[in-house]
Design goal:
This protein is α+β, with helices and mostly antiparallel strands and 103 residues long. The chain contains two helices and five strands.
Length: 103
C-alpha cells in the first residue's frame, strides 16, 4: 500500500509519498510506476525552471519514499504542484486498494 499526504501552509505546500503499491511484482507494478513517474516528473519540471528553482524547499526521492516541499507563492509553481496532487487523487480513485490519502 502506498500512502500520500498533502500539507498546505501559507505560500508553501508539502507532498509526502511512502510505501509500495503492491499491485504487481516488483519491476512490473504499474501503480507504483505511475506514482513514481508523476512525482519525479513534477520535481524535475520545477527544478528545470531555472529562474524559479528557489521554489523547491526540500526534495527527497528514495526507495519507497518521496517528499517535495515547494513555495507556492508563484502561480505557475502552485499549478504544477496542484497537477501532481490531482494526478495522485485520480490514481487513488482508480486503484483505491493500492493508494490511499493520509490525513
Amino acid at each position: 500500500m502506498t500512502f500520500y499526504r498533502v500539507v498546505r501552509k501559507e505560500n508553501e505546500s508539502l507532498l509526502e509519498v511512502s510505501g509500495h503499491a503492491g499491485f504487481g511484482p516488483k519491476g512490473e507494478d504499474i501503480v507504483c510506476a505511475s506514482i513514481s513517474t508523476a512525482c519525479i516528473m513534477t520535481a524535475n519540471l520545477i527544478d528545470k525552471m531555472k529562474e524559479k528553482s528557489y521554489n523547491i524547499l526540500d526534495a527527497v526521492c528514495e526507495e519507497g519514499y518521496f517528499r517535495l516541499q515547494v513555495k507556492t507563492n508563484d502561480l505557475v509553481i502552485n499549478d504544477i504542484f496542484e497537477n501532481l496532487v490531482d494526478t495522485l487523487d485520480a490514481l487513488q480513485k482508480e486503484y483505491p486498494a493500492y493508494l490511499k490519502i493520509k490525513n
